[in-house]
Amino acid sequence: MRIEGKNLQIEVNGLVVNYTDLGPDNAHVLLFVHGFPFSASMWQGQLDAFQEEYRVIAYDVRGHGQSEAGKEPFSIQLFASDLLGFMDALKIDNVALCGLSMGGYIALNTINVVPNRFDALVLCDTACSADSPEGREKRMKTVEDLGKNGIEPYAEASLAKLFAPDSLKNKAALVANIKKTILATPLKTLTKTLHALADRRDTCDTLFSIKVPVLILVGKEDGITPPEVADKMRDSIPGSELQVIPQAGHLSNLENPEVFDAHLRSFLMGVYPRSI
Ligand code: MLT
User: Fold this and answer.
1) At 274, is the pLDDT very low, low, confident or very high (cuts 50, 70, 90)?
2) d(Cα 12, Cα 223) in Å, to the nearest integer?
3) Ligand 1 pocket by Cβ (under 6 Å)
4) What distance in Å separates the CA atoms of residue 81 and residue 83, rounded to the nearest whole number?
5) Are 62 and 70 in contact (CB under 8 A)?
6) How far apart are CA 186 and CA 63, in angstroms?
7) Which pLDDT value is given to residue 1?
8) Would the pLDDT of 117 be above 90?
9) If you average pLDDT over residues 229-252, what whole number do you get?
């Protein structure tokens, strides 16, 4: 029997995964995957906005939020296997999968393995390419700095990259909340995930084979995975739709939820013409 609610726990691949599962039992399922280094809580606005028409689920990726980390090294493939294990544990065959940044990397790795488990993909502020050698070097330097200086300076420096200048200036509560989430992430999760991100494989040459409807969303001022990157993905994924979100940086669902949700809603109406 389904258990509905917030901060639920289920075992996946031998670890406890924390998740939220809301909305009608028989509705189509929207599954949200967060970016790094955040948690399922970054999707709270979308869970609230979509839970009347859809069954909405968000979970903490291993080591993040309140999910257990385990001892093995992290990889995006491991996160993809957790995602499938999570769907299996909840006995869900098919979902529309919405991933932001690292969540998008996980989504692209998962759809490659089991394309028939996904009705649609929403790729937000993400990319298909692997890190460049310089990007990898930067991540390893961050690992080193985290060891020397702790999380506070890393969190502070991250905010400047994550948000559009206008959000930094005018959305103090949102910025403070994200800083709190970063500071709450265990140091080990930060370093293990930085390694996983640095080692992730390029999925760009698999995009042409995606057969389900795809919506690509990107903040106009996303400096981490900018609109040009989203443009290239749109060109590679047959029939995909790209929408650029104004007044948003890398965290487009948080910085401009009205526009983000409007695009998501209209896309989903095409995917699932009857919501239930
Ligand atoms: C994220 O938001 O998940 C990160 O920006 C991903 C990355 O660092 O590549």
Assistant:
1) confident
2) 34
3) 35-36, 101-102, 197, 224, 250
4) 5
5) yes
6) 8
7) 87
8) yes
9) 98
Asked whether the predicted pLDDT for residue 275 surpasses 90, the reply is no
Hey, whose CA ends up nearest to atom 7 of ligand 1?
102
- Can you tell me the distance from the alpha carbon of 250 to that of 94, in angstroms, rounded to the nearest whole number? 28
Report the C-alpha gap between 196 and 73 in whole angstroms: 8
101 Cα nearest atom in ligand 1? 3
Out of 217, 224, 255, give the residue to mutate to test ligand 1, the one with the largest number of ligand atoms within 8 Å of its CB. 224
Element (H, E) at 17: strand 15-22
Report the pLDDT averaged over residues 191-202. 98
Interacting residues of 222 by C-beta distance below 8 A, sequence separation 6+: 125, 248, 249, 250, 252
Give DSSP secondary structure letters for 142-172: HHHHHHHH-HHHHHHHHHHHHS-HHHHHH-H
Ligand 1 atom closest to residue 34's alpha carbon, by position in its atom list:
3
pLDDT in tens, 252-267: 999 999 999 999 999 9
Terminal Cα distance for the chain, rounded: 19
Atom of ligand 1 nearest to the CA of 131: 9
Give distance in angstroms: CA of 9 to centre of ligand 1. Answer: 25
Query: What tokens appear for 20 in the block?
Result: 């939220």
Mutate to test the pocket of ligand 1, among 39, 75, 101, 189 (most ligand atoms within 8 A of CB): 101
